[in-house]
């Protein structure tokens, strides 16, 4: 059990760091659905665990229900 402790601490530290970064990002940007162009905000937790690519997030649109790469757009 003790052998896993450093890995666990590093994993938690990385996740916490990503969560803090995503908190700042999601406070400034909304995401736009690739299917219906509906704009929605993500929680920092969702933004952390969703797969991402060049700033886009692979998430389910709350409006049309499609799973798409949602692009970041500045909050109005
Ligand atoms: Zn949509």
Note the beta-strand portion. Answer: 25-35%
Main sheet summary: 5 strands, antiparallel
In DSSP terms (H or I, runs of 4 or more residues), the helix count works out at: 2
**What class would the helix/strand composition place it in?**
alpha+beta
**Globular, elongated, flat, extended or rod-shaped: what is the shape?**
elongated
What does this protein look like?
The chain is of the alpha+beta class. The chain has one domain. Helix content is 39%, strand content 28%. It has 2 helices and 5 strands. The chain has a 5-stranded antiparallel β-sheet with strand order 2-1-5-4-3. β3 and β4 (56-60) form a beta hairpin. The longest helix has 24 residues, at 5-28. It binds zinc ion. The site of zinc ion (ZN) has 8 residues, from loops.
Structural descriptors:
39% helix, alpha+beta, elongated
Write the layout of secondary structure elements.
Blueprint: H1 5-28, E1 29-32, E2 39-40, H2 44-49, E3 52-53, E4 56-60, E5 67-74
Antiparallel strand pairs: 1-2, 1-5, 3-4, 4-5
Bound molecules: zinc ion.
Zinc ion binds at residues 33, 35-36, 38, 61, 63-64, 66.
Quickly describe the structure.
This protein has 76 residues and is of the alpha+beta class.
């Amino acid at each position: 059990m003790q052998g896993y402790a450093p890995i666990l601490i590093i994993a938690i530290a990385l996740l916490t760091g990503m969560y803090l970064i995503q908190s700042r990002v999601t406070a400034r940007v909304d995401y736009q659905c690739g299917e219906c162009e509906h704009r929605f905000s993500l929680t920092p937790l969702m933004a952390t665990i969703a797969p991402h690519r060049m700033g886009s997030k692979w998430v389910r649109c709350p409006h049309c229900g499609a799973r798409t790469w949602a692009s970041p757009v500045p909050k109005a």
